[in-house]
Design a protein that fits this description.
The protein is mostly helical. The chain has one domain. The chain has 5 helices and 2 strands. A two-stranded antiparallel ribbon has the order 1-2. Helix 3 crosses helix 4. The protein is extended. The two termini are about 30 Å apart.
């Protein structure tokens, strides 16, 4: 939080600074960044100087997502592709086909091949 001057700290709720400083929480930010930039299945909501979310920005992002003919439709299409890849890695019995590591490797390989094939890196893209 101090490096980027972004984030929200709620006092007297939990030891948030200690929790957010823990190395295990880094994956959450990375996953969010990956969903926005690499997979194109979410949008980033811009915040003001004091981490305030402005109503106009929320409206802009909602309009972007619900637009079937534009980014919203593309985001839903990409999210559907990811869903199909995840389901394809799971057998009829609910178990991963092969080892869990193999299923994850297949999923990551599919994502990387999509990225190398010209996948969008826009920070405001949504995919199905």
């Amino acid at each position: 939080m101090s490096e980027t001057n972004q984030g929200l700290l709620v006092h007297n709720w939990a030891p948030q600074l200690e929790i957010l400083s823990h190395p295990a929480t880094r994956a959450f930010a990375y996953n969010s960044k990956m969903l926005v930039e690499e997979m194109g299945v979410s949008v980033e909501l811009k915040r003001g100087v004091q981490s305030n979310v402005v109503a106009e920005e929320v409206r802009r992002v909602i309009d972007l997502v619900v637009d079937e003919s534009g980014k919203g439709g593309e985001m839903r299409r990409r999210a559907g592709e990811i869903k199909d890849k995840i389901r394809g890695a799971v057998g009829e019995d609910g178990e991963a086909t092969g080892s869990s590591a193999e299923a994850m490797d297949d999923f990551v390989s599919a994502l990387l091949s999509h990225r190398q094939g010209g996948g969008s890196k826009s920070s405001n893209s949504i995919t199905q």
